[in-house]
Structures are given as structure tokens and as C-alpha cells.
Amino acid sequence: xxxxxxxxxxxxxxxxxxxxxxxxxxxxxxxxxxxxxxxxxxxxxxxxxxxxxxxxxxxxxxxxxxxxxxxxxxxxxxxxxxxxxxxxxxxxxxxxxxxxxxxxxxxxxxxxxxxxxxxxxxxxxxxxxxxxxxxxxxxxxxxxxxxxxxxxxxxxxxxxxxxx
Length: 164
Description:
The chain has helices spanning 11-18, 21-35, 56-61, 64-70, 100-111, 113-116, 131-139, and strands at 41-50, 74-82, 88-95, 121-125, 143-147, 153-154. The chain is an alpha/beta fold. A six-stranded mixed β-sheet has the order 3-2-1-4-5-6, sandwiched between helices. Mean pLDDT is 77; it is low at 158-163.
């Protein structure tokens, strides 16, 4: 009835503050696995955020000299999302300086072998273009689709493959 946010002195607010990062990640991914128990096509990507003063992110993101000085303030959230129902299946966090491909192992580990057996396609951007990752997906018989600058490349195949 006209409330703009959660009251600060309620037990619900206090409970929300007490939820650990790991509990929150587990709840989100459990919900994603219930929404999509047998994912066939997933996307892997990350995005950056700042803990406080979010408006400064856009300015500092493109200023390399300032980003080096303040990069400890920025974090990345890495996600594996099912492409059709857009359910989050895996989450990993890292400092902003961490390259995306370095967190792909944690994402896949948190996804788990059971869900990975259903996956046929993995889509990612050029930050995930890596031979070790390609070899892993090849062993698992998964098509790894990476979009580098300019063209679509399906690692191990010709670019003219029809993608579902």
C-alpha cells in the first residue's frame, strides 16, 4: 500500500541480511535446476558490477588508468544460463581483473556432471575461447560455439553449421 521498499526493522529484512553468499547462490541454482532439469543448450558469460557507487562503473570501465587504480572495487558475476527458459544453472564470482576463462572451470564444476550430460550446445563470447575448454567440451561430445569479433566460429567445425 504505497511502500517503496522492504521495511528496515522487520524480521524478513534481518533474515535477508543474514543469508550468506553461498546460500543465495545455492537457492538460485536450485530454482534454475527445477525450472530446467535437462538443459540441452546453455550460454556462459559474465558481467561486472561495483559494490557501491554504481554510477561510476560506466565511467571507469572504459578508462584504463582509473580502472587499474580502483579495480579492487569491481567484481564479476559469471553465469551459465539455459537458453530457452533462461534459468540460471551455475554462478561464480570473481574480482574484476580475473579473466572469464579462468572462472569457467568453477562454473562447470558447479553445473555438475549430471546436468552436463544433457547439454549439447554451449554458447560463449570470445573471452571463453580457449584450447583447454574446447578439448573438455570435445571429450564430453558438446558443441562449443564461440563468437569472436566479426564471425561466428564453432570450434572444431565449419562456420556454416545450423544452430538450434
